Amino acid sequence: MVADLPEPSTGVVVPDTGGVRSTSALGRAVVGDALRGVDPVGARAVESATVWRRDYVVHFRRLVEAGLLSREAAVVIARDGLASLHRHMRFATRDGELALAEAFALDPAGDPLATATVMGAGTPQRQLVLPYRGERLEGADLNRQLDRWVAAGVVEPSCAEAVRLVADNPQWLDLSDRRVVVLGAGAEMGPLTALLRWGAEVVAVAPPARTWTGARVSTSCSTCAASPTGSPACPGRSCLATTCTPTARRTFG
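Below the sequence we write its predicted structure tokens.
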């Protein structure tokens, strides 16, 4: 019995580099292009990096430092980096690949985008809670951890002060009057869960619910979105792709 071969990827894809879709090669190219206009020496260092997965932190730090030189430098880095990303990324169809600019002229294909509403039934979180190594830090525990991080040089004192300021003003976490659009809502490091816990109406754009990412968004919306009456029973009210609102809304493609 021969297993079915997976369908090739379609849509926006990382460029093929020597038969491999390498995010490392893409990252190196984009960071180098972003730096070149303000720090050509740094750009050459990026181009010569041989183990990007290990070395990228150094080059991203240089990218940030170069952007701090002036407003103009920051704008050049952002503009050139974005242009490079658009130039390198590709749009794959079943018939081949195109540049992103060419893809906008194509007729839409595949499943149409759709929206759905997910009603939540959770309880709003009104205290700042920081997940860390399997624990949920708040109050005195959070303050002690902030002290340890400052002492170890992990964060600047101003960072710890900012976190404490939010913790001392829990009313700031009431986002029941806010609507936030979250692209890539299923991302592990995304803000979806926190926004929902704090009561925001979230228009969450994500892949279809049948995918792992889409299912994760759906679960977050249903456990955190506002109650059916629209009162902020839980922070999120809507998800878009499917949607989380007092109607939670979420949009899946």
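Residues 114-124+174-252 form one domain.
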